Amino acid sequence: MNYNEEKQALVNYGKKMSTEGLSSGTSGNLSIFNKESGLVFITPSGVDYQKTTSKDIVVMDLEGNIIDGDKKPSSEWHLHTLFYKNKPDARAVVHTHSVFCTTISALRMPIKPVHYVIADANSIEVPCADYKRYGTEELAKSAVKAAGKSDAVLLANHGIVVCGKDISSAYSLAKEMEYVAEIQYRAMSIGKPILLTDDEMKEVAEGFKNYGQPKKEDK
Ligand SMILES: [Zn+2]
């Protein structure tokens, strides 16, 4: 078994998560799901991101059986595997305790459409899951239930979980949701934020479909 690409990507994004301020200390965790093999690659529990190497990445199946690696997997492996079981397009999951998402989660309120980039979560708002203790299957169930179709969900008094079609999309979504949460926090500090309406958000979602450079076949 090799899978160096998956392991190295997790090492690189773990370092990025720590240097870009999305995680302090060893908090947060990342995983990649390889659908063909049915394997989940996940960061180890309690290892400093700056010191993590590809040898530390744990390989498990969707039931949590360790297939390879001598470290303990992230304590939130239930959260990661349950997302893959419930979200057919998810190939990567990122969980962080980023400050502004966690601040909003302490109010047990959703991240609201205070900025249009929230549409990247495939949702008008990012719901907040009921509080359950960290590292439990109950937390995973609560998160998946609250997420529904959204690719991002807050965990009450804890942080945020997001998923994406690959690790780069999942990581970008975690950063964007932190940005929207910060705008919400700042706007709530000086007044009552005016939220984008459902129609305005529909328009944004439509626009996102055609965002970026046209694909070759479109030319
Ligand atoms: Zn956590």
Automatic annotation (TrEMBL):
UniProt superkingdom: Bacteria
The keyword Metal-binding appears for this protein: yes
A molecular function (GO) term: metal ion binding
EC number annotated for this UniProt entry: 4.1.2.17
Top class in the EC scheme: lyase
Keywords assigned: Lyase, Metal-binding
InterPro entries from the UniProt entry: Aldolase_class_II_sugar_metab, Aldolase_II/adducin_N, Aldolase_II/adducin_N_sf
SMART domains documented for this protein: Aldolase_II
Gene Ontology BP annotations: pentose catabolic process
GO CC annotation, single: cytosol
SUPFAM superfamilies: AraD/HMP-PK domain-like
Residues in Class II aldolase/adducin N-terminal domain copies: 8-185
PANTHER family the UniProt entry points to: 3-OXO-TETRONATE 4-PHOSPHATE DECARBOXYLASE-RELATED, FUCULOSE PHOSPHATE ALDOLASE
Protein name: L-fuculose-phosphate aldolase
